Amino acid sequence: MFVLELFSHYVLHFERYFILSRQSTLLIQWSIVVLAGLYLLGRHPKINRYRTMFLAGVLLRIVLLAGVSVELIHQVQATNFTSAYLREDGNELLPLVHFLLYGYVLLTAFHYMLMPRDHSGKGMFYTFDLAVVSLPIVQMIFSFFSYWKEYPDGVEPIEFMFLFFIIIFPIVLNVLFFKLYWRTNKILLGLFYTLIIGLLVLLLVPFSGRISIDYGAVMPYTIYLTMAGFLMSYHLFQKSGKVYVRVNKWLTMAVIVFFVSLLNPIYNAGTAAFAVSKPINVQGSFNFVGEHISSEKAEQIIKSFFPTNETLYLHDTKMDVHYFYSFESLSYEAEVDEVSQLINSYQYLKKPRGKTLTDQEYVRKSVAFLERHGRVLNKEHIETKVSKEDGQTAVRIYLKNQLHKKDNDDDGTVFYWEKETLMSFSEDPSIYQLDSLLHVHITEQDIQGKMKKMFTALNIPKQPYQITDVESNGLLGGLVHVETKDGIVVEFESESGSLQSISLPMKKNISLTNNQLQRQILSVFDADVSEIKIKSRQGDKAVYSDSSHTYEFFEDQGQLNVYVYSALDKSFPYTYSNGKLAYEKVASVYRDVIYKKRMRPIIVQRGNERHYAWLIIIQPFGSNRHDAYVVDGETQEVISLYES
Hints:
17 helices, globular
């Protein structure tokens, strides 16, 4: 069972990280089956095995080039395919190089192993394949010169030395390869493998204190090195005489059985593993189901704030869903939160225009900008601060803490003006009226009732309090922070309004030694005191639980802090095959062409209520957007993550 679960996770790795598209996966799977079938058919005495495998090789490469074309069409439609964009982001070629590595290199290697030893067409295939896997390197060279032409001051002299190395190394390796193909020379062979192995180690091992390697950036080189290394190794293996004759027959059959059992599209080892294996642990949870905005609406929001006639390109994301949509045009970059619909960041990329204004004029422009776009300021509780930073005028609008002095340098909605141009901008929901925030469902009246209940339960005299912060994050969820005059801090979840934490200043009767106080605090969280059990208690920390929640008490920096967590008391009950059925249910009604898909087990959370479900993520062809659907694990009900 452990082996099957491990294998399931390996298979799902390609889905989790969107490594191969659905089209590429099917192409690879069916090509494996067809090649294996043609090889077995070629064993028939009346069929010319040489001609069959040669034609199979030609057709295979035509199909693979069609696959490369499909990947390029998707990328051109989905991204701003310019040299500057490639140089800055570096991920636009990843789908293509992934297909070359896991599709082209794998399938051509499989085909070579099926070809007869003395086939005269191998040299032609070698030349063609080395040329194809060199294409990403050629693309990078042309991108460099295109970028240099557009931004001549943006290229350092040392980068030309690096470019020279990029150009020269495939030329040297190709010359060595074909010299060795026609006649083996031990010195040249040693030089060839030294270059291959040395460059792979240099590219893939993090030397010089580097913690990690950006494998996407080095893949164009590793693909070429892998292909060249395999071709030379297999060429030498076929020339080895007795070793080849003794090993080749069972090796070829073993490779066929291995690939067909793993990759056939009808029923493979992955399908069998999915039928019995379950997720080992479920860590992801999702809030605001049905309230996320689509990429189309996010683009409308961006254009309403920052009008442009230029094309806005949506950046890809490595996460399940975007959580925040990141757009780029020739003039600016902007990011909008997927739940709160607030602008996380905006950066103008061109030169400022207009004349320099006074500080008060910049403040008025900033406030007018927010009001013009429908933001409702909490004017009774906000302040403004103007400063000069790097030649720009920074206007900060922040929520004033009327009960305690606080440093607000890192809080608030911030504008950076240069002349009359807004160069940078980011929003903080704390400065807006609570009922105007779309993602906040708790009202000030709700907070008033909950605070009154807390004062009564803890026998604390009623005292002034204020909302001091509103957190909004599509990834982490939302919280409303409330602080009292005596320093009590309370946090409410913005979606459900449920109480999430309490922090009390420690006094003589407020500590972990006061068991009566702990029971009173638990009643504030609506805990069933009759079911409460103590899970652990040591020093300055105590943990309690009931049938559905865990309550953590701990002392820190003069405060007694209490947090509540909802927990499911059983492991994920569904197998991966249930997840596949959930995907098929979503795919049956999905309108666009599915380019990539992913399924993963999640916990759907609303307040203190939780249940297991499947998250189905689909990336449509020709777009970087991720469409997400939540499928209830028990009822199989499909709910879009996005607002209707």
